[in-house]
Design goal:
The protein is an alpha/beta fold. The chain has one domain: 3-Layer(aba) Sandwich (Undecaprenyl pyrophosphate synthetase). It has eight helices and six strands. A six-stranded parallel sheet has the order 3-4-2-1-5-6, sandwiched between helices. Helix 5 links the parallel strand 3 and strand 4. Helix 2 packs across helix 3, helix 3 packs parallel to helix 4 and helix 6 packs across helix 7. The longest helix is centred in the middle third of the chain and has 24 residues. The radius of gyration is 19 Å and the shape is globular. The model has no long low-confidence stretch (mean pLDDT 93). The chain binds farnesyl diphosphate. Farnesyl diphosphate binds next to helix 2, helix 3, strand 2 and helix 4.
């Protein structure tokens, strides 16, 4: 049923973020609290992510972009790096059928050149198997960095023959890794740190931020609802001013 009041309809639509970006921090600390190796936290983190994708979709979020492995994460101990690579492979075989059946479209963003052929093929398979799903798009940022993204977009534009005086924001956006998605409305980081860590630098120009102490493996529906409730009260002006009738309740 359509809302007969256009202002109320606009408010309701704007109160749910279309696109949520997520930094899943705190796996290592969560594992340490249990006297377990860091890998145990990452493993739990995957299960929590699969549940979170569904919960975000149920609340009307259309795009969820998660930071699984940054361009800088190669600096971690070799054992942890190979553990994360293996975990992603296992996650694809364990969860692909389930996610495909639940209407999740999977996209991988990041520099694929440095990962194994096996992992690259698993990603291609996951993307192909879910390409027609429309409930929610889960973009997994792997070997991704915001600076890398800007550089690769420039290179792509040059390779496409774009001239210097044709370069503008729209042109670069077209070549960014998330060109298929709107800019994120809400950026959530768990684990108590308050920084962007080279995630989605270009796309987060007017994104709202929500930081929580909650460690990623403890992140569930209550934390999702808290983040969405905080977002619903933000007064987004995008550098301009907002007509008072469209301001969120209490703003
Ligand atoms: C940060 O916690 C977490 C990561 C660097 C990895 C996050 C990855 C996953 C949850 C797995 C994703 C897998 C798929 C299939 C998408 P940390 O290790 O920095 O924790 P700490 O800050 O407590 O040390």
């Amino acid at each position: 049923m359509t809302n007969p009041n256009p202002i109320a309809a606009a408010q309701a639509a704007a109160s749910v973020p279309r696109h949520v970006a997520l930094v899943m921090d705190g796996n290592g600390r969560w594992a340490r609290q249990r006297f377990m190796p860091r890998f145990f936290g990452h493993k739990q983190g995957v299960d929590v992510l699969v549940r979170a994708v569904n919960a975000f979709a149920d609340r009307g979020v259309e795009f969820l972009t998660v930071f699984a492995f940054s361009s800088e994460n190669w600096k971690r101990p070799a054992e942890e790096v190979s553990g994360l690579m293996g975990l992603v492979l296992v996650a694809v075989s364990k969860y692909l059928t389930k996610m495909a059946g639940e209407g999740v479209r999977i996209r991988i963003i990041g520099d694929r050149s440095a990962v194994s052929d096996k992992l690259r093929k698993a990603w291609e398979q996951a993307e192909a198997a879910t390409a027609h799903n429309t409930r929610i798009t889960l973009s997994v940022a792997f070997n991704y960095g915001g600076r890398w993204d800007v550089v690769q977009a420039c290179r792509q534009a040059l390779a496409a023959g774009v001239k210097a005086d044709e370069v503008d924001e729209a042109c670069l956006s077209k070549h960014m890794a998330l060109s298929f998605a709107p800019d994120p409305d809400l950026f959530i980081r768990t684990g108590g740190e308050m920084r962007i860590s080279n995630f989605l630098l270009w796309q987060a120009a007017y994104t709202e931020f929500f930081f929580t102490e909650c460690l990623w493996p403890d992140f569930g529906e209550a934390q999702i609802d808290a983040a969405l409730a905080a977002f619903a009260h933000r007064d987004r002006r995008f550098g301009g001013i907002r007509p008072p009738e469209l301001a969120p309740a209490g703003a």
